[in-house]
Design goal:
Layout (H helix, E strand, L loop, with lengths): L27 H30 L1 H4 L6 H15 L2 H9 L1 H25 L4 H12 L5 H8 L4 H13 L1 H13 L7 H25 L1 H7 L3 H19 L1 H32 L4 H12 L3 H11 L6 H22 L7
Helix pairs in contact: 1-7, 1-12, 1-16, 3-10, 3-12, 4-8, 5-6, 5-8, 5-9, 5-13, 5-14, 6-9, 6-15, 6-16, 7-8, 7-14, 7-16, 8-14, 9-10, 12-15, 12-16, 13-14, 13-16, 15-16
């Protein structure tokens, strides 16, 4: 979950010629943006793996940091707010059907798939709740970069990710209560407050900073993806450290569950766009908006409301969805747009 990426205002248009083409001069700025995006999605999974190994081998060094996880997530969401611009929200008004379809697909497919996989694999209650919680989280904004690399509709990707994040304080707790209430007791009210404090308020603060401190924000924008990568890696290390004693026994089944969950999201997200008669660029965007989750939020809620073990699916998802997303994006980028 690379939680602060780039908005459409700072990403080249999908499919734009960032390098040289037949008779087209190279655009150094677009080429630089493309290189930055590719480096980010390549390096980030490596950072997460290193952080996970560190948390597993040195649990005593990271466990004491567990109370700071909500504040770390707040930093990530503040960075997300800094990347948002008025055109990101204007695109919602211009394309309400596509945005609504993306949000509904996200909050139907991923929670439902999480529940089905948890039941089908007979996961123990804490792991089942953790997987369902990942599915009920809003989109991860690394999906924006994946959509760009896949030559998808970046504006739609940002609109869906932003909208799903803003409605998460209401939708996520209700879905978790409905789907996971049979596994463990769910404090939906407490979740609402936690999501408001760790997600909504930091995003709004970032938006306000972008509006009133434009010059300062412009200077720090290039560093935001790397700052977010470092923070989410630290969250993964803390989460893994909390459940290090149980990872050997539960790691295999959790990895299988996460791979299935993410795979269903990517495939069914694309299919939802196809059934909604969206163009191929929009379908590619929805594949990542549905299949990639804000696993940092899921880990934070799991740690605060359940147990470190319940946060394990979030930590694994944080690694895997960036790896699978980069692979799928590279594959789609080599395929011509069907309706171009």
């Amino acid at each position: 979950m690379l939680e602060a990426t780039k908005s459409p205002s700072s990403l080249p248009a999908p499919g734009a010629d960032a390098g040289t083409g037949a008779g087209v001069p190279a655009n150094p700025a677009l080429a630089a943006e493309a290189r930055i995006a590719r480096v980010a999605v390549t390096v980030f999974p490596i950072l997460v793996v290193v952080a996970g190994v560190a948390g597993f081998l040195l649990p005593g060094a990271f466990k004491p940091l567990a109370p700071g996880v909500p504040y770390l997530l707040g930093v990530i969401m503040f960075c997300m707010g800094l990347t948002l611009t008025p055109p990101d929200f204007a695109s919602v008004a211009k394309r309400p059907w596509a945005v609504v379809l993306g949000i509904v697909a996200h909050y139907v497919i991923m929670p439902g798939a999480g529940w089905l996989i948890a039941v089908g694999l007979h996961l123990e209650p804490e792991l089942a709740v953790g997987l369902i919680l990942v599915g009920c989280a809003p989109s991860g904004t690394a999906s924006n970069v994946m959509a760009f690399l896949a030559k998808g509709d970046v504006a739609l990707s940002v609109a869906v990710a932003s909208a799903s994040t803003l409605i998460a304080p209401v939708v996520t707790p209700l879905l978790v209560l409905f789907l996971a209430g049979s596994f463990l007791d769910i404090d939906a009210g407490g979740m609402v407050l936690d999501i408001v404090k760790t997600v909504l308020l930091p995003v709004i603060a970032g938006l306000l900073a972008r509006l009133f401190l434009r010059r300062l924000v412009a200077r720090v924008l290039p560093a935001l993806p790397w700052a977010s990568a470092a923070v989410i890696s630290l969250i993964v290390a803390i989460v893994v450290a909390g459940s290090a004693s149980k990872i050997v026994a539960a790691g295999g089944i959790v990895f299988l569950a996460v791979v299935l969950h993410n795979g269903f999201g990517l495939g069914l997200g694309y299919l939802a766009g196809k059934l909604g008669r969206l163009d191929d660029k929009a379908r590619r965007a929805l594949a990542f908006e549905v299949g990639m989750q804000n696993s940092g939020l899921a880990a934070t809620l799991a740690t605060a409301h359940f147990s470190p073990l319940a946060a394990l699916p979030s930590a694994v998802f944080s690694l895997w969805h960036n790896v699978s997303g980069a692979i799928v994006a590279a594959w789609l980028a080599r395929r011509p747009l069907r309706d171009a």
